[in-house]
Structure formats: structure tokens, C-alpha cells
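Sequence only, no structure available. Ideas?
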Amino acid sequence: MEILTKLEELILLAVWKLKEEAYGVSIYKHLQKVTGQKMSVGSVYFPLDRLVKKRYLKAMKGEPTPRRGGMSKRYYLLTDAGLNILNETKKVNDTMWDGYTALKEKKVRI
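Reply:
I predicted one. C-alpha cells follow.
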């Protein structure tokens, strides 16, 4: 199984949540809102391109708009492979986090 970076995982989840509104800037704004972290737009676009190359996302061009100077938005859609890697990642995360509450309550030092 491939291990996603945390940012790749968050981007895939953002695309899943935003559905038909998942394009670069909306994904970027959603990540900033959820994480509370400031980031550059480029820090989102590079992983988006990687996820498209890995076939976890599909990129599609929208209609050009006058507001954008005739340029179109690039929308993203989660593929079956993307959904599968998210499910695998969730299983790994659940396994890794299992027992954390008990560990925290006992104040065990590592």
C-alpha cells in the first residue's frame, strides 16, 4: 500500500467534501479554514498535480468565464483509486490511533 503525505490525504478529503466545487482555490481555502494554517497556493497545486498523475484525482476544465478573463477553472474529481487509497489510509490511521485515549489517561511516557 502506498502511504500518502498528510497534505495529499487532506487534499483528497477536501475534493471529496467539496464535490463539484472542488477546484484549486476552493480546495486551498477549505484546507486553510479546516487546518488554521497559512499556506501558499502553490503548496496545494503541486500535490494536486501529483495526485492526478497517480490517478487518485481526475482533472477537468470548466467553462471559460469573463470574470476570469476568459480562462477556465480546473476542477478535480475523486477517482475510484482515490477513494480506495482514502479508505486504506483511514484503516491505517484508525489502527495507529487505537488505544490513544488509554495511553493519554495513564500518562505513560515513551
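Strands lie at 57-61, 74-78.
Hope that gets you unstuck.
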